């Protein structure tokens, strides 16, 4: 856990921001650190803390999730790919957290009670699911954000209650709104990255191009093979190789590049990465969400090598689609591929321009600003709506095309003009029987006795009413995504 320095006693602010991450790899914690950095720069935030929920859990639980995942990546990558696709359907699993997860979440819940946050930011889907359960129980009085850390959206990140869902790119928002998620609750922020050096990158054509090779993330033998292949390149270049905390890998690579003299610089763990990214001309490494976003924020194109099946493959696809990366599927041709980029006049510069175009260096500040200024009531997705979203995803349907009792409706708070509930049409019928004020309008009221509904109406009332006794809302159908509307209007 990280605490901010003490503030001046005359400081006037009030916000208390809790950032929840999970140390499965370094990316989620790096995004959390970037959000904290953005919080530290705001005068309206009194205190901010970062908590790795896995560090709060048992050793067995932590090892199973963190070490177990990377063991699968190393030994059975095809299984990781299959698991990614299986978990890509939103709301495939519904209902409360399993007992083991609940037990391991108790220290985090205790931390929330002690800290009393006014805002919570989740950079991993595990704490996001926990926070959703607390919102539905009516025991949490804080604005909540779910911040995704890859360019593609995976269904595991979509929870049953949240205030804002931040995604990396416009296509992810289009995917969610096509499934019926209200667009006013989905924000395109980019992936939070640490602040880059204030000076813009100066990449002169007068000097040989600089390669930045991330060896530590690529695995020992594979990384050595990648570096060895660059020795056979015909284009002039210099290279910095970063090996992280792997001292054995650093030693092996130093032996490999020793005949090249001072062309190569080999580093272990370094705090210089922001400056290295800013100085380099081309990055060679895995396309993790944070690594890729840091490169794009620095205007640094990538040579994608050895991606983890699932999210990293999709990250690489997006970067290549945008013209900011190339992919090498085997280390034996990496030198040749880099030569192709460096020898073609203007190609490297075009890739750098593409990287700058899609980079979002201000993503962390965007997350903090839009969460704190956003609606105070959460969005609740009922279990009926979750079933409809899952069915739409499995059958490749646009949710707004559905009709009948299983179609989606939304409740809108007219004061903030924000969606506070997504539910099935059949569930709206139950609400109308009790709360209808006029056609299209309801007045929700706090109920002391159990509501005799077919679905869990009490969860909705607890979550959206807060301290209010009543709440007037509009009932609306889920509108088709803007892209679909435009397509239909042109086809007439």
Automatic annotation (TrEMBL):
Diacylglycerol glucosyltransferase N-terminal domain location: 28-193
All copies of domain Glycosyl transferase family, residue ranges: 237-357
GO cellular component, one term: membrane
Gene Ontology molecular function, alphabetical: hexosyltransferase activity
Biological process, per Gene Ontology: glycolipid biosynthetic process
Matches recorded under PANTHER family: MONOGALACTOSYLDIACYLGLYCEROL SYNTHASE (PTHR43025), MONOGALACTOSYLDIACYLGLYCEROL SYNTHASE 1, CHLOROPLASTIC (PTHR43025:SF3)
Record Gene3D superfamilies: Glycogen Phosphorylase B
Keyword terms, alphabetized: Glycosyltransferase, Transferase
SUPFAM superfamilies linked to this entry: UDP-Glycosyltransferase/glycogen phosphorylase
Name used for this protein in its record: Glycosyltransferase
Family: Belongs to the glycosyltransferase 28 family.
Organism: Lacisediminihabitans changchengi
């Amino acid at each position: 856990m990280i605490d901010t320095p003490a503030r001046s006693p005359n400081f006037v602010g009030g916000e208390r921001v809790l950032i929840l991450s999970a140390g499965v790899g370094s990316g989620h914690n790096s995004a959390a650190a970037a959000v904290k950095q953005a919080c530290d720069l705001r005068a309206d935030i009194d205190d901010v803390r970062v908590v790795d929920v896995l560090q709060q859990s048992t050793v067995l639980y932590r090892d199973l999730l963190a070490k177990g995942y990377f063991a699968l990546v190393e030994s059975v990558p095809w299984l990781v790919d299959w698991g990614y696709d299986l978990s890509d359907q939103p709301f495939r699993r519904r209902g409360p957290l399993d007992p083991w997860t609940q037990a391991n979440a108790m220290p985090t819940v205790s931390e929330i009670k002690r800290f009393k946050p006014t805002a919570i930011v989740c950079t991993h889907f595990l704490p996001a699911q926990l926070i959703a359960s607390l919102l539905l129980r009516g025991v949490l009085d804080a604005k909540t954000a779910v911040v995704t850390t890859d360019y593609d959206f995976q269904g595991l990140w979509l929870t049953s209650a949240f205030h804002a869902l931040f995604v990396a790119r416009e296509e992810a928002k289009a995917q969610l709104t096509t499934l019926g998620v209200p667009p006013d609750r989905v924000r395109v922020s980019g992936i939070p990255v640490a602040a880059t050096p204030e000076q813009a990158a100066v990449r002169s054509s007068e000097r040989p191009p600089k390669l930045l090779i991330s060896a530590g993330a690529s695995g020992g033998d594979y990384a050595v093979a990648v570096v060895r292949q660059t020795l056979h390149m015909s284009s002039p270049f210099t290279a910095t190789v970063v090996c992280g905390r792997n001292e054995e890998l650093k030693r092996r690579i130093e032996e490999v590049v020793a005949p090249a003299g001072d062309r190569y610089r080999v580093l272990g763990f370094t705090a210089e990465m922001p400056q290295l990214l800013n100085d380099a001309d081309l990055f060679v490494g895995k396309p993790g969400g944070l690594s890729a976003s840091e490169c794009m924020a620095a205007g640094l194109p990538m040579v994608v090598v050895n991606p983890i099946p699932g999210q990293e493959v999709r990250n690489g696809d997006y970067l290549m689609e945008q013209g900011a990366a190339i992919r090498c599927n085997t280390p034996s041709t990496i030198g040749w591929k880099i030569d192709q980029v460096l020898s073609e006049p203007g190609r490297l510069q075009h890739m750098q321009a593409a990287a700058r175009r899609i980079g979002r260096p201000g993503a962390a500040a965007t997350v903090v600003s839009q969460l704190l200024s956003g609606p105070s009531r959460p969005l609740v997705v009922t279990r009926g709506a979750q079933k409809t979203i899952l069915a739409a995803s499995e059958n490749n349907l646009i949710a707004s095309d559905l009709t009948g009792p299983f179609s989606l409706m939304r409740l809108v708070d007219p004061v903030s003009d924000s969606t506070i509930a997504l539910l099935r049409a059949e569930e709206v019928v139950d609400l109308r029987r009790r709360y209808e004020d006029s056609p299209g309008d309801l007045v929700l009221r706090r109920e002391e006795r159990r509501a005799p509904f077919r679905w869990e109406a009490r969860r909705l009332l607890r979550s959206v009413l807060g301290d209010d006794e009543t709440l007037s809302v509009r009932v609306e159908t889920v509108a088709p995504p803007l892209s679909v509307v435009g397509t239909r209007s042109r086809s007439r």
